[in-house]
Amino acid sequence: MKPRYKRFILVVVALALLTLGAMFVLKAFRSNLVFFYTPTEVLAGQVPQGQAFRIGGMVLEGSVGREEDGLTVRFEVTDTLESVPVQYTGILPDLFQEGKGVVAQGRMNAQAIFIADQVLAKHDENYMPPEAAEALERARQIKMDNQ
Amino acid sequence: MSFWQYSSPQYFYPLAKKMAIVFFVLAAILTVWGLYIGFFVAPTDFQQGESYRIIFIHVPAAWMSMLIYLVMSFWAAVGLIMNTRLSSMLAQALAPTGALMTFIALWTGAFWGRPTWGAWWVWDARLTSELILLFLYIGYMALRASIEDPRRADRASAILALVGVVNVPIIYFSVKWWNTLHQGASVSFTKSSSMATSMLTGMLVMALAFWMYSIAVSLVRVRRIIRDREANAGWLTESSGVR
Q1: Which residues on B lie below 8 Å from A92 (Cβ)?
Q2: Residue B238 placed within a domain
Q3: For position B238, what pLDDT does the model report?
């Protein structure tokens, strides 16, 4: 066998082993690679207990309310199955909206309310002009009215 | 004249010059066209307003950062296996452009993240793996620079490049495999795009422009590398008149 064929096989085998190794490592570190937990996972107790973590999902429509001080916000994060109440004191990002994605960092208190110290907006991968978004929204309303 | 003779630095050197000029011209035209679409034709986004326009730089740069790494590793592997000088030189020439693209992707991403997410930087899987890519490029260049003998530098850096190649699919699929703050792909091979047409056109034209620029600048760089490494070869001395 020519030396270059040997080297080719060596490179291919090394890459295959490397990929396999990387897959095991990623599997092992799975919990650290997750940026946020969903409300279902939180309520099922699959989150680090007594530690800060992030919760992500949609802001439940109609759940956003402000406290008297004007800075504290309460809302619920939902993954459409379960929802968790969140309380946050501070300035919300511009894209924070009901029905849109959100990621909050903080910890659960004794009353099972998630006290957030940071709230991030998670936008989706859809890009369109406002008119198109309005048209889609209208279509959605009509569909809901018909049901 | 056979096609394979261009794998010799001596024949590739003048060809690279001609190709570089063509690719620079294409890059300039496409950049002007793409930016025109991006700033004047593409509409405002319904959610993000004007700040979404950073995609015309951010996405092409991020695509290039991954693609250049794959191409660089490919040439490094060919150099390692076939023992061809020009392949390793090409890999060497691609690294700085790849690092630049990675840096642009990270930097514009931070500028985008602040107004949209509310944070410059978060340690989610997409952002972290892209940062690792930047370190891989820097590590590759540093390793090359630390070895005096260019043939040994070729082999050592090729192994580093190949080890790092597992990171590229991780970057690409990170938004699918794990919960990330970074949104999913708007454009992919498997589903139709979730963008308005003029936005998509602008982004694809800019992506092409980045391709052309990367090819052109890498060709210029490979010529410089050939000049450095083949300085004592007969064909490149003053009297041969190649320059």
Answers
A1: 118
A2: no
A3: 59
